[in-house]
Amino acid sequence: MEFLVILAALGLHRVVPDLRLLHQDGWFFVWLGKFGSPSAVKFIVSLLVPVAALWLLDCFAAQWWGWLGSFAFGLLVLLYCLGRGNLPANLDAIEEHVERDDQQAVYHDLAKLEGEESERASATGAPSTPEELHQALLQNLSYRFFEHSFPVVFWFFVLGPAGALLYRLSELQANKPITTDQQEVEDEAPSCPVMGLAQRWLWLMEWLPVRILGFSFALVGNFACCLHHWKECVVCPVRTTGQVLLHYVVGALSANVDTADIEVAELEMVRTLFHRAMMLWVCVIAFIVVL
Hints:
It is a single chain. The protein is mainly alpha-helical. It has helices at residues 2-15, 26-33, 40-81, 87-99, 103-114, 119-124, 130-159, 161-174, 180-188, 197-220, 223-233, 241-253, 264-290. Helix 3 (40-81) packs across helix 8 and helix 5 (103-114) packs parallel to helix 7. It is 77% helix and 0% strand.
């Protein structure tokens, strides 16, 4: 059943890449606002309550309407959990700005990829040189392609709809917009361990999917170079998911990110690399289901 849901969701998302009507996250941010000051217990409860509620709904759907109810419910949840925004259209706009050599527009595109008001964007900072812009654009574009579908599909296959929702809510909480109150708390207590709990949890949820994806890149890209890069990152506890992805993409494409030149062909190769890897994942999931 999971394989059919995954196949249907990815097919629909390919035809309709902009799912903004379904991606309504206001309820979750209202829910987070009820917890006040952050703590480890509140963080756990904020994720477990909606995930547990969805698990119960999934059980009821399967009991009341059988496989059809389970399929429809799983498809709806998986579509909701896929990445926000129209990534193909965003990449088309970036390629147009790169082709026009409009660096100011590319900087703006990078800010949109990071989320201009997000905790993640504030942590990375703006690139100060064309070389840094090249690396940051490739890294953030790779991360967006990754979080749009790969970990969602992975956790859906492993844990069902509850797993997919757990990942998406974790990503939303880790990259949520920073409020004025949050910024004041960070300024007053920058070493507070709770502040990085959401980011660390998201890193843990992405740890296995990104490494499986890296090995997939070796199979659909430059095998020897990507495998070498994969070995360097496979047990690394320091690199962020974006940094690991950049390392894998550079290896798979044999790309040179130490130059100031951003090429449209390179961006297209990134898109193709992720599409090939997803097709490989679908084939592997089908093989596992048949066995």
